[in-house]
Specification:
By secondary structure, the chain is mostly helical. It has 8 helices and 3 strands, in the order H-E-H-H-H-H-H-E-E-H-H. Helix 4 crosses helix 6 and helix 4 crosses helix 7.
Amino acid sequence: TAIIATAVTFILPVSYSSTSQINIEPDISSDINPMSGPGGTTTGYDPYFLQTQLEILQGPTVLGKVVEKLRLNELWGKKYGVDTFKTSETVEFLKNQMGLSPVRNTTLVGITVYSADKNEAASLANAIATAYHDYRVERHTLRTLGGIKVLEDQYKSEHDQIQAIRANVDKLRKDLAIVDTDPQSFVPTPTLTQEQLRQYHDMMM
């Protein structure tokens, strides 16, 4: 048995592994608590957050970027004697060559890639980590821009309301022949003289 095991070990092709370590943390509280509001004010713990991120990490969203950046369809196609691979085939092949290992009691995750070429293993591990980082940055950017768009729409709506009120006030001023010496002032301009106001006050008393 020992002789056979030794012989098989020498027959098997050499395989290298390379590991990159990344930190997976929620961007805002809504990432860890799906029930939080738009502002992410409600805090909580989502036990599925890390598992979801691991699935994304080894899914077509991230690995597809790696395949595209490193041109693995053509590279691996020539390596295995075909013209080119489909992206879905290359993604599946790459997924089978990698392993994810979360570090217990931390937010760290190790990305290990196996290959007969040590340089390829290192390149793939680093490319996967970079692709996932870019995915998170893009997702956060889109969410931020979406929040800015909401604020811009709210500002436009309030600005339109103010313009409508101002137009209505101008119309009333014109219809009632009110003379306003300072239309930009926040203090209303009296339409009666001080003497008239005093007489009016005496009459009311």
